[in-house]
Design brief:
Length: 479
């Protein structure tokens, strides 16, 4: 082995893992990227410049020690590399697959900025953690000491599961409550298998269950159990429900058959992948087969919908977005994947209404980008007289998500929320207005990334441990 396996970015070009051909991958819901071979993973990791100020690390919400585990991967010390990766990231195999690296670590890579092409951080992370599972390096969670305190985690998405992991490792008794029949939140039912195969999520859920985390599934807080009852049963509570309420479009024809919500559509598709019976798919209500599909939106959820529709056998798939390609919020890598699979993007286009019942078309108004707003983004403006109708048999609304009104749903009027209905919590401790109740993830931030939810869950777990320690010390002092 060479003395220095790093700094190869000048002589070795960036190379992503091979993608399965579009004609093949569009036939199934398996992940589209193949694995690196060991030599290729080491070679690509060795392109890292080991810069003194690692911008990849500072732009990672978890501040993963990326240069360190890249160096260890290049040296063939894979188990050590995994240990460093796992030390700051509860689910590195998930982040390696679905993080928008082009906007985070890779987008801020120093050698990318100098024109040499970024280090393929996400692909190496995926390879590294898949190797860890295959070789038994992912060890069971075994607390050193069991503690009597119990914590309720409401929501089994990435934030809730990350907190449950940290709290259980500390020996606390943890119960996770979730409305769905499987844990994982949007990782299970919102993200398609071609980006995140479900066994990757379920193996982490299994690890938590084996460690003694209790899961109360099919449990709607406020209906099946009251929020007050949960608070009474546990010493602390973490709210990590995420945001599931779809943003609505106010336009003529919104309620007609064939105009559906993105999350409903994706959930049905993911349930099929688990082998569930799904009447909404069998009836054709949430099935794109043989249909002209129009997806409205420009985020990652819209990309998930268009690529799912292709795999279901749609005759055509178009994506309408009111801004241009450069200003869309979704991952550019996902846009490219969608285009390869036959999706047509109709830029600077916004829905004005819908024709037919069931739907037969989208009334589209053409847009142009005007002056920037307070955030610096150019504001879309309607071009008068340029309306037209886009034929459609299925319209999928992917306009983003909003939080539910938890104080109302949970009969908890003293739970503080913002004017957007996100839960108010302390920036550092994640403590809410209610004693012993904390909040983390999208229910605080609004719709965001899985990696931010993981960070929030880990931070909230630390805050809960500090809160319980203080409560214990106060109880001892009072005796």
């Amino acid at each position: 082995m060479a003395k220095n396996p790093m700094l190869k970015f000048v002589t070795i070009e960036k190379q992503m893992p091979e993608k399965r051909p579009p004609s093949l991958r569009a036939q199934d819901f398996h992940e589209i990227y193949r694995e690196y071979a060991a030599e290729k993973a080491a070679e690509q990791a060795g392109r890292c410049s080991q810069c003194g100020v690692p911008f990849c690390q500072s732009h990672c919400p978890l501040h993963n020690n990326i240069p360190d585990w890249l160096r260890l991967t290049a040296e063939g010390r894979l188990q050590e590399a995994y240990e460093i990766s796992q030390s700051t990231n509860t689910f590195p195999e998930i982040c390696g697959r679905i993080c928008p690296q082009d906007r985070l670590c890779e987008g801020n890579c120093v050698i990318e900025q100098s024109g040499h092409g970024t280090v393929t951080i996400g692909a190496v992370e995926k390879y590294l953690t898949d190797m860890a599972w295959e070789n038994g390096w992912v060890r069971p969670i075994k607390p050193v000491d069991e503690r009597s305190e119990s914590v309720a985690v409401i929501g089994a998405g990435p934030g809730g599961l990350a907190a449950a992991d940290a709290l259980r490792r500390a020996g606390l008794q943890v119960t996770v409550y979730d409305r769905h029949d499987r844990a994982g939140g949007l990782m299970t039912y919102g993200i398609p298998g071609f980006k995140l195969e479900k066994d990757v999520v379920m193996q982490r859920v299994d690890q938590l269950e084996a460690a003694g985390v209790a899961f109360q599934l099919n449990c709607n807080v406020g209906t099946d159990i009251s929020f007050d009852a949960i608070r009474g049963k546990h010493d602390a509570v973490l709210i990590a429900t995420g945001v599931y309420k779809s943003r609505e479009l106010k336009a003529p024809g919104v309620g007609v058959a064939g105009v559906v919500k993105a999350l409903d559509y994706l959930t049905v598709s993911n349930r099929l992948g688990f082998g569930d019976e799904v009447p909404e798919f069998d009836s054709g209500e949430l099935n794109a087969a043989g249909k002209r599909v129009v997806v409205i939106g420009g985020g990652d959820t819209a990309m998930d919908c268009v690529r799912t529709a292709v795999r279901q056998g749609a005759t055509s798939v178009k994506c309408l977005y009111r801004r241009d390609r450069a200003n869309m919020p979704g991952s550019q890598r996902e846009v490219a994947n969608a285009e390869e699979e036959g999706v047509e993007f109709v830029w600077l286009s916004a829905p004005k209404g819908f024709t037919g019942s069931p739907v037969e078309g989208v009334l589209v108004q053409k847009m142009r980008l005007g002056a920037p707003d307070a955030t610096g983004r150019q504001v879309p403006e309607v071009i008068e007289g340029a309306d037209y109708v886009e034929d459609a048999d299925l319209v999928i609304m992917a306009l983003g998500f909003e939080p539910e009104n938890l104080p109302e749903a949970w009969d908890a009027p003293d739970l503080g929320v913002t004017r957007w209905n996100t839960v108010k919590s302390d920036f550092h401790t994640h403590a809410t207005s209610l004693p012993g109740v904390f909040a983390a993830g999208d229910i605080v931030r609004g719709a965001s990334l899985v990696v931010w939810a993981i960070r929030d869950g880990r931070e909230a777990a630390d805050a809960i441990l500090a809160y319980l320690a203080e409560a214990g010390a106060s109880a001892v002092a009072a005796q």
